[in-house]
Design brief:
It catalyses: L-aspartate + 2-oxoglutarate = oxaloacetate + L-glutamate. Belongs to the class-I pyridoxal-phosphate-dependent aminotransferase family. GO terms for molecular function: transaminase activity. Keywords: Aminotransferase, Pyridoxal phosphate, Transferase. The structure is a single chain. By secondary structure, the chain is an alpha/beta fold. The chain has 2 domains: about 140 residues, Aspartate Aminotransferase, domain 1 (Alpha-Beta Complex), CATH 3.90.1150.10; about 220 residues, Type I PLP-dependent aspartate aminotransferase-like (Major domain) (Aspartate Aminotransferase, domain 2), CATH 3.40.640.10. The chain contains 12 helices and 13 strands. It has a 7-stranded mixed β-sheet with strand order 2-8-7-6-5-3-4, with helices on both faces. The protein has a 4-stranded antiparallel β-sheet with strand order 9-10-13-12. A two-stranded parallel sheet has the order 1-11. Helix 7 links the parallel strand 5 and strand 6. Helix 2 packs antiparallel against helix 9, helix 4 packs across helix 8 and helix 6 runs parallel beside helix 7. The termini are far apart.
Amino acid sequence: MQIGNRIPSMKASGKDGWEIVYRTRALLAAGEPVVNLTIGEPDRPTDRRVLDAIHAAAVGGLTGYTHGPGLPELRVAIAERVTRRTGVPTTAANVIVTPGGQAALFAAHMVLLQPGDTGLFVTPHYPTYPSTILSTGAACASVAARAEDGFQPRAEAIMAAQQGTGARSLLVNTPNNPTGVVYAAETVEGIAAACRETDLWLISDEVYDTQVWEGRHLSPRALPGMAERTLVIGSMSKSHAMTGSRLGWIVGPEDVIAAATVLATNTTYGVVPYIQKGALAALALGEALEEEIAAPFRRRRAIVRDAVAGSRAVRVSASAGAMYVMLDIRATGLSGEEFAHGLLDAERIAVMPGESFGAAAAGHLRVALTLADDWLPDALHRIVAHAERVMQQSG
């Protein structure tokens, strides 16, 4: 007996980008000490006040089914947050709660695409982007944001990709994982203009919107003519240190939210109700909690810059937000993949090779800023020293 071809066809290539993570987990399981800078997960637990709210809701009996687009009060709170942060009037009817941001990405593409369509995504990209698009039965195609442009995607590249493929949708991410880039206002305006010109749906992944160190985050949904063609992906994972709670959302036009609700009824059947109550409690704590969770990543970005300053082999790529820094190691002559595996062998330090996020990030490393301030400088100095040795040996 053979399984269907839908799941095998979700891989855009023979690799899934997580090979270094699997190696790291195997070493840790074998008792090897490894400094793990691969996964973007806040190095602090969910706030106790949020956990107390989850506990109270569960013990209070909120443990039954909760199908549909989410608890009404949570959808209102999300809509109010979006209105406040972006200036775009948003109501509960524009919101569906999902089991995490990844489920929101899946639902958005399922609603917008069908077999025979093409969905675009900007690369460097989170590894699940192409497979999420492929899971709908549609084809996927990338739009490269080049290192030479500070990883800011160009409108003309988007338009060329759409015209070459007949694509119906475009997926972007700012602040960006893996690069840490915050798209400039001109970039966002160019993306919006390209979408209007070529009649593209825009899916804007904004899960890092509370982590901006330079400039400001501009949601493309706030630009003229974009609210009716933009879906915004949000999540509690990064902004509120609730990765395991699996709570995200889509904000978009009412007909899209209604269609996504039909999909949810036939897949997830909603989100755990006591987790939704926890999210409501977290949102009620306001920007103070968001700033508290973001603060370590702001500090650690500065630590990375100080540690790398003056190196001939390593330099920090443009990084203005999110919980990552991209290191350019092209001067070593190695690919990011070769360097990352060599670093793990020699120093037992695990970082993500840029190639895990697409060819546009080749020769780079993604460092997750999830190591305590006291330990991060040593790890960075060892990475730089390893790069310097590699460059010396190759020169």
